[in-house]
Every structure is written in structure tokens, then in C-alpha cells.
Amino acid sequence: MIRSERSSKRRGAATTGGMTARGPLLKDELDIVIPTIRDLAFLEQWRPYLSPYHLIIVQDGDPTKKIHVPEGYDYELYNRNDINRILGPKASCISFKDSACRCFGFMMSKKKYIFTIDDDCWVAKDPSGHEINALEQHITNLLSPSTPLFFNTLYDPYRAGADFVRGYPFSMREGVATAISHGLWLNVPDYDAPTQLVKPAEKNTRFVDAVMTIPKGTLFPMCGMNLAFDREMIGAAMYFGLMGDGQPIGRYDDMWAGWCCKVICDHLGFGVKTGLPYIHHSKASNPFVNLKKEYKGIFWQEEIIPFFQQVVLPKEAVTVEQCYIELAKQVGEKLNGLDPYFTNLSKAMVTWVEAWSEISSSHKKSQATANGSAVK
Amino acid sequence: MIRSERSSKRRGAATTGGMTARGPLLKDELDIVIPTIRDLAFLEQWRPYLSPYHLIIVQDGDPTKKIHVPEGYDYELYNRNDINRILGPKASCISFKDSACRCFGFMMSKKKYIFTIDDDCWVAKDPSGHEINALEQHITNLLSPSTPLFFNTLYDPYRAGADFVRGYPFSMREGVATAISHGLWLNVPDYDAPTQLVKPAEKNTRFVDAVMTIPKGTLFPMCGMNLAFDREMIGAAMYFGLMGDGQPIGRYDDMWAGWCCKVICDHLGFGVKTGLPYIHHSKASNPFVNLKKEYKGIFWQEEIIPFFQQVVLPKEAVTVEQCYIELAKQVGEKLNGLDPYFTNLSKAMVTWVEAWSEISSSHKKSQATANGSAVK
């Protein structure tokens, strides 16, 4: 059903400045999720693009601290006390003192699409000096198909002025539905601590005017800074793991989610895109602090990547939830030798997907009640 | 041996305008191969960039026609009579009345690198209006490693101002040696006949400032218009098939070579890049003529692509020649049901690689004689 809906939109949504005749694109179908520990002043700059949408703010750290949200934004805010109250014992799967807590916002959303952005990301400009409406580009990416089965050398074939090139099989030109749109960053690049230490002043100034599908079977490093996805298609796998407080690792939350999501998208035949849109990433985090958080991950990823490259999901796994449970099982079996952390992570993955299913059911029930239909 | 040589050059050749202290980059290690049926006036525009290099011109069609080469270029020219004389009965593997004949030039070269370009390709300009030295960019691509095992979201990590992003395994950051650099085209895009017919006026005006590795396991449509490769690494597989005169198909010569080369590069651990450099492609060929040449390919590729996606080469095949012989065998066995053409093509592939080996041996002998060493 998802596919046929997408196919009818394959040439992308016709829009002007993110607006349709009915108002901002997908206004009632998309939530913006922001993890934060501070005031959200960055939203002032985003006002023309993001203010029509509903925000889900996940407050990390001290729950007694008051987070200031610029006026005019419609939002709901969850702090640690809320997470504990809503999830009960299952709250253990949601990280604390790490931006991994953002995935709680994905769970609480009742919408089909999510855009998540960090609070140190600002509006970028294209080479002609125009502000980039990042959300509009993400929506265009999500509403047009992906092409994971064969590489198109002129990049996104659905974009105006482009198409499939000679030699591209015609049977593959409908593409597949897109689950994830991964955006990039101008100014401060998303480097690991060792690279930050070696190249403290490097800035990304290259605007690459392309969106492309990551081919089937290829893993990529998914950054959570500027990311959109179809919550109904892949949300149950968009779990940011156990990071931060009480955990031996940090800064691998989005990477973990990306590896899990990519193997599941490949299995289920969904597409993952990367490239446009750019945001302006303002400030590099402290490389010494980052090194402390990352160093185990730097070792572990040498074994984690081959694991994900070889993982095979059974044919019987036909929903994201089924795939995720199976993946959790394999993580527990095959990565536990690396560190006991992976046994905990495997369990947390199961807890996450159980909590996801419970919250989804309660959303459906309350929606049915709101619609006046009988709930048995 | 090839790898260690490349690793020392991993950060790319330091150059200014394609020049080193010793003169033009790789001047004595690279040949330019041009298939043509007409005068090579386009070389006038390329003079600042290509004139220091040796040309190998493969004259297609009527051998009595005189091809005019602009003055000052150093070249050798082969027409059909030469091909027949040099290869004898094996000349049957070289296509006639089709630009597929260019691969004879690859065979006759004694150099390590090849750049091949069509005679309707002109010097393109970047968005700031500067002429693009396509050959210099190809050389940069070939002399820096590829990253086929994991996707880097900031594209070529070896380029100035870029690097590997967070989450990219450190053990994979040395990359692998690059065998092929596939360049793109501004103005007239490389579309098939149906797309040309549907979009007769479409021009490619988007300059995408990126070079990327095509991931391992992913096929792509390789266009022969603007292409460079390491002849020692992959030349024996750069066979453009049986096309044109007396054959049921045309315009799939470069595609065939690309599919064969990609599966062999994947098997041998070599890299394939696409993206920069752009050339300006001046003139769309006639879509009606093209449709006649292509239409069987349009059907056949629907079975050819799954064949190449599933092909497995044996571990014992450790040279390009061994891989190519094995691939020819599988083409004969698995595609012969599609059309008797594939039985002929399979045989021609074997003939090609035998001819390649013979010519290579005779080159080595004549070089040894020239060096004054004894040849037994």
C-alpha cells in the first residue's frame, strides 16, 4: 500500500517554497523532534520553515531546568520524569545525558513522518546565497522513490532536469519507496574525535548539489543531526541505543540506528537517500570529551561493521518490528563476545520495540476514541 | 605491488594545472584513445590539456578516408586494414562501424593508463566559468584510492577539505587502488533512445562537485565518452563487445565493458569512481537511429543485469585475464538462451583476451629488445 501511494508521487511534490495550495507541505503528517539541554534560540532562525509544524522536544539532563521555546511554536516537551512515568520499567531503554534520548520523541509522535535536527544547526545558504529550506528538501526526498538496485550516474533520476541514463534497466525505473532522507552539513563537518584532533580547523565548504540513493548492500554512517524518515515504514528500527549516562560509550547512537535501519531497509526493499539538504553546523564539540565517549566505539566498530555487512534476516521477517527483534537476537548472539555491553544492548533493543508497539497501540486506541468509534 | 605503490600516493598528486616539476602529469605513462570517422577538429580546443600526450586514433568505417589530425599532436592511427593485418583472424572480435572499435586502441597502447574521449566532447566550464582540465581530474581520481566497502557521506574522503566522517571504520580508510575513473557530461546527457524521444530538449546543466566510489556489489551504466582507466589493472576486461556492422545491437559497447569490469573489479578488490570531471557533450545523436541500434538491448538488459548481479567468480581467478575467461564462459552458458548472439559474444570475449595477451607479449619483447636485453 505504501508503495502504490508513493508511485503516484514519483516525480516529487510540486511545491513553491515548501507551500502547497493547502498550506505547508505535510503540515499535519510530520513532527519535528529535537533533543536538547538548553534554550532553543536556534528556532528563531528556522521560523519561516519550521513554525507551521508541531515540535516534540526531548529534554535531556536535569528535568527541573526550564527550557525556553520561542513563541509561536506548537510543541510538546518530555523530560526524564515524563519518560519514566510513560514507559515505566521500559524507560531503561531510553538513554540519559546523551542525544540518543531523541528516539523517545520518535516513539511519542503520532505522525507518519519525522524530521529531527540538533539545536546547534542553523539555516545554510546555497552557493547563490539563498537560504535552504532543509525540511522541504527532506520531504521531496521522502516523497520520491529511491533506486537502491542500480546506480544512476546522474544522481537522483526523479529530479527536474535529470533522468535515468542509457543502460539503466527500464524495469527498475519505478524505484522503491523511500524510508530515510539523510541530510548533510556545511561548516563544521561530522568528524570523529581523532579526525577533529588532527584537523581542528577543517570546515566543509563544498556544496554538492546532489541527492543519491545508498545502494542495497552498502552501509553508511548515518548522522542524526539533520535527518528525516518515514516513521510508519522504519520508525520501529530508529532506536538510538544505550549511550551516555551509565554506559561505556557515546556518540554512536545515530550510527547504531543507521546500521540497523539500513540492513532492515535492504531486507524489506525500502530506499535510503543521502545528500541534500545541507544545514549549517555551527560548533564543533570538544574533541577530548568526544574521544572519551568514542574510544570504545572506535575499536568495536571494526567488528560491528563486518557483523552488519554479513547479517541476513529471515524471509519470514516481513515487518520492521519482526526484523528488529531478529536483529536484536543476532546482536546478542554474535557481538556479545566483544563486550557484555552488547548483551545489554540486545535486550534494550527488544525493550524498545515492545515499548514502540505498546505506545502505537495506545495511540491507535485514543485515535479511535477521538473518532467516536467503539474500542473493544 | 600495485596497492603499495598507490598507498604512497593516497592523498593525490600535488599539481598545478596538471603540471608537475617534470612536466604534464603522467605524460609518458598515459595514452589518449579516440575512435573517429571524421576530422578531429575538437582537438584544437583541447590543445592546452591534451597536446603533450600521445594519441591512439582508431579510424572507424572506410579505411581510404583521410582523417585530419590537428598539427602538433603526436599520434598513431589505425584503420580497419591495420586491425585486420595486426590481429589476423582474431580481428573478428573488434567491432566495425561502431565506436566499440576503440578497444583496439587500448590493446595497442604500451602505457599504464588510458584516457578515452569521443570526438563530439568539448572542454566544459565549472560554475565559476573556468575551463575544466578533464584529464587532470581523471589522473587525480586514478592516483587516489577508492572506498568501495563503506559509503562516505562527504563523498571523496581524499579530496582537499574532506575526510572520512564519524562512524567510518578506521581499518577501511586506506581504501583500495582505483582502476576506473568515469567522468560525466554537461549539456547533452547520455540518454537512451526512448528517453531522447520523450525529452528531446533536456540538457544537463547541473554541476555536481563530487567524485565518489561506486560501492562493491553495485552495477552502474559506464559511458565510454569520457573515461579513464588503469590499463595494467583492468585493461584486459575493457572489451567493448560485438556491436555495429553485422551485429544485432549497438550502443551497448561501453555498458557491456562497464558491467564486466565492475564485477571483476569487485572480485579483485579494485575501485571504480564516478563523477568529476565533466566534459561538454555537444550533440545528441539521432534518437530514431539509436532506437534501431538499441531496441534489442533494451529487452536483453532486463536479463543481463540480473546475470551480472548474481555472477560469482571463482577464488582461483586472481588475474584480470583469468576473471575475463571465466566471465566469458558464464556468458556463454547463462545468456545463450536469450539469443545466439551471446554465444558469439562469449567466443569473441575469449578471442579478445587471447589477442590482448599476444599483443602484450609482443610489446614486452620489443621493449626488451629496445632495452638491449636478451630475449629468449
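qc> Residues 2-375 of chain A form one domain.
qc> done
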